[in-house]
Structures are given as C-alpha cells and as structure tokens.
Amino acid sequence: VQLVESGGGLVEPGASLTLSCVASGFPFSQYDMSWFRQSPGEEREELAYIASGGTVTNYADSVKGRFTVSRDNAKSTVYLHLHSLKPEDTAVYYCHRYTGDYWGQGTQVTVSS
C-alpha cells in the first residue's frame, strides 16, 4: 500500500489549493479514505472523509463549507479542495486509509502573507 500526497505550497490568505493523493498497491475503489492535518505541537486532526463510492462525505466543523473532498476511482486518487485559506490552516496534510491504518508522507500547506 502506498499513498502519495502532492499539491501543497505557500499561498496567501484567501487563496485556494487542491491536494491530491495517489494510491497504489490495493483496489482503491473498495476503500473509504480521509484527509487529516497536523500543525506543530498539535494533535493530528481529521478533516474530511469520503466513502469508497464517493457519494458519502463528512467534514470537520473547522473546515465545513471551505474544504471539499472528492475522488476519482479510475485514477486511484483522492482530492482535497481547499478554499478561503486562513493562516490557521497551515499544517502538514495527510491522506489516510482507515482499513489497516495507512498514511501518506504528507504535503505542507503554508498560508501566509
């Protein structure tokens, strides 16, 4: 199982980003996925969940209405679309497969003017 995130970077407040997580080594379409983030000194926070078929999603209150999770099972990829970014969104963002507790290496998002 391998999960590889990309798409992070340095952006100004109010900007948007799309993070991608490409999965390999397992039948991606059969597994629920999620996105987490972790800031220095903080607990890892679950942000968004998407069921295997993509029709069921759930979000943390802290990002509801600003972040959207989606997936393309044909590309074995899960996305996190980040909008109206704030400095407090600065963190390392991780994708996660619940079954077996697999994590990617993370991608850094920094929101600063």
Quick overview of this protein structure:
This protein has no helices and eleven strands.
**Morphology:** globular
* Unreliable sequence segments: none
Oligomeric organization of the protein chains: single chain
Judged by helices, strands and strand pairing, the structural class is: mainly beta
Termini separation: 37 Å
Question: Quick check: average pLDDT?
Answer: 97
Task: Note the total helix count.
Answer: 0
The proportion of residues in beta strands is over 45%
How many E strands?
A: 11
The biggest beta sheet, please?
A: 7 strands, mixed
Cα-based radius of gyration, to the nearest Å = 13 Å
Task: Determine the fraction of residues in helical runs and give it as a percent range.
Answer: under 10%
Order of helices and strands: EEEEEEEEEEE
What does this structure look like?
With 113 residues, the chain is an all-beta fold. It has strands at 2-6, 9-11, 17-24, 33-38, 45-50, 57-59, 67-72, 77-82, 91-97, 102-103, 107-111. Strands 2, 4, 5, 6, 9, 10 and 11 form a seven-stranded mixed sheet that branches. A four-stranded antiparallel sheet has the order 1-3-8-7, with no helix packed on it. β9 and β10 (102-103) form a beta hairpin. The radius of gyration is 13 Å and the shape is globular. The mean pLDDT is 97.
